[in-house]
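Quick one: ABC transporter ATP-binding protein from Pseudomonas violetae, C-alpha cells please.
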Amino acid sequence: MSPDEGVLSCSGLGFDVREARLLHDVQLHIHRGETLGIVGPNGSGKSTLLKLLAGVRGPSRGEVFLGGTRLGNLPRRTIAQTLAVVEQQADTDDAISVLDAVSLGRTPWLSALRPWSREDAQIVQQALLDVDATHLKNRTWRSLSGGERQRVHIARALAQRPQILLLDEPTNHLDIQHQLAILQVVHALPVTTVIALHDLNQALTCDRLAVLERGRLVALGAPLEVLTPERLKDTFGVQAHYLVDPFDGAQILRFRG
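--- reply ---
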C-alpha cells in the first residue's frame, strides 16, 4: 500500500472479543485534510474502529496503515507525533490544572535532548486559544463542566500538533450549546479529522461518512449519498426524509418512528 492511498488506512480490519466479532473486514482510506464521520447504531463498532485506527487496540485481523506504513511497525512516539485521539471516557481524578493537562500533549516531542521550551509553551497557549479555553488555564480539572472538559481534551490533542485527529463522539452527553461549539472548533481545524458521531444531522456537515452496521462497513461516501431514506430504515430502523432549512438552504433530516 502506498501513502497516496490515504494518510490513514485499513485493510481487512477485524476485531474479536472471545467469540464475538465486533468488527468485520473493514477497508477504509482516509484522505488528507478531510473530515470523515463514522456513524451507526449503538454497538455497530464505531468506538472499536477508532481505537484500532489509533493503535489503542491491536486488530484481530487485517492491518492499519499510517502514511502507507503499517501502524504496528511504527514506534509509539512516532504515532503520537502524527495522530491524536480524544476518547469518550478520558477523565482523571488527579488534582491537575487545565494548563498542565494541555501541556501533556507535548510529551511525544520532549526528550532529554529536547526539553521543554518557549515553543512548547506557545503551542499550548495556541491550543487553548483554538478551543476558546484560555480563560480556563488556571482552573483545576475537577472544577470544569462537561463541555469545558471536552474542550480541554481537544486542546491537549491539538498540543500534540497532529496531522490526524480522531474523536469518539465528542458531543456525547453535552448540551446543545456545547455540542455546536465543539463541532465548530473541530471543523475549523487544519488537520485530517475522523469523528464518530451519534447525531446524524451533525454528521451531514462531514465531507464523507462511513456507515457501520453490526461491525461491517455498509456505506461510504458523501453524506447525502449514503444517508438515504432506504439506508436510514435498514441500518438505523427509522423512517426519515429531508427538509430544506429556509435560513441557509441546508438539508436536514426529520425522523419518524
